[in-house]
Amino acid sequence: MKIVNLKIVFLLLIFTFSIDGVSAQRVKATASLDSAKILLGDQVKLFLQLDKPKHITVSFPILGDTIVNYIEIIDRSGIDTFEGESDEFEKLIQSFTITCFDSGTYRIPPYWFNIEVEGVDDSIPSNGVTLQVFSMAIDTTRGPTDIKMPYDAPLSLKEVTPYILGVILLGAILFFILYSIKRKKNNQPLFSKPVKPKEPAHIVALRELDRIKSEKIWQKDKIKQYYSEVTEAIRVYIESRFEIPAMEQTSDETIEAFRVKKGLINDKHFSNLSQILKLADMVKFAKYKPLADDHNFTLVNAFFFVNETKIEEEKPGKLVEENDEEGEEVTLK
After folding, report:
1. What pLDDT does residue 196 have?
2. What is the spatial distance between Cα 302 and Cα 214, in angstroms, rounded to a whole number?
């Protein structure tokens, strides 16, 4: 009698494991990325796929706005159905557009799908995937540098000798006499208001960025206005510096203009500009809420782009005059 009972139990165990094995082979959950490596702020697709018989009822996992750590979902599709390998099977696929604004390696864990087979509830996991996020390349040979205000370097009186001052004074008196005679002869006033020269593009941009930095309007919950002012300063600079109508273009059109006109900026500057414009668009149009560090990071990127792409002003060279009697040199910096 005991032998018969043991046989029955043994057969039931074999039957149970056979059903589980068949069920596991018939339903398969898969997670995948269209790219496992991205730059800071880029977007990538996460796909959740379920292969199953048509008679099995399934429920996809519900994902929030944040997956893990700093990986955020900015868009998601519905669940699309496709024919499987045979008429009895089908594929269900849902895609998520994700992004990340902090460099590092992130492990996206498996997702569990709820299934119902003949009135019995069960679940099956997908595989996990890994996403690597890289920041832009930094020139480590220069070391960290602070953002400095543009300034004028006036000549020091200590560097000017009495001889040079005397020559300048005599020249100025002679010029003034000739100038006044010419103006009087042409019935023109002696003095007229000079036309103010146009300021260099980088001076205007840096002054505007300094204003934005000092006002710190992002601390007053004016996030959208802050990113609008930063991008407007950059667009005005691009129009004046590169003659690209950035004020009339979208961010994608401006980025494409730099991509077409090769040689205007290098890859590092191009990546820097793209990050500023893309993040600002997400804040202004996609209601994206950036982290606190993103505000300072955007402003630093803006200063960096202007300073690295500006037209360098000609610096005064060294003027050397020899003393007739002693042979001493006098240098003007």
Report:
1. 67
2. 15
3-state secondary structure of 81: strand
Give the Cβ contact number of residue 182 at 10 Å: 10
CA dist., res. 50 & res. 91, Å (int): 6
pTM of the prediction? 0.38
- Asked if 68 contacts 86 with a C-beta cutoff of 8 angstroms, the reply is no
Neighbours of 33 (CB within 10 A): 16
Q: Tell me the per-residue pLDDT of 290-331, one tens digit each, with 9 for 90 and over.
A: 887 888 888 899 999 999 988 876 555 544 444 444 444 333
CA–CA separation, 273 and 201 (whole Å): 16
Which domains does the chain show, CATH number per domain? 30-134 (2.60.40.680), 157-197+314-332 (no CATH), 201-309 (no CATH)
Residues 6 or more apart in contact with residue 119 via CB below 8 angstroms:
none
* Six-digit token string for 131: 């996403």
Question: Tokens representing 125?
Answer: 């996991």
Query: Within 154-291, where are the H helices?
Result: 162-185, 201-215, 223-242, 251-260, 267-285
In this prediction, residue 68 carries a pLDDT of: 81
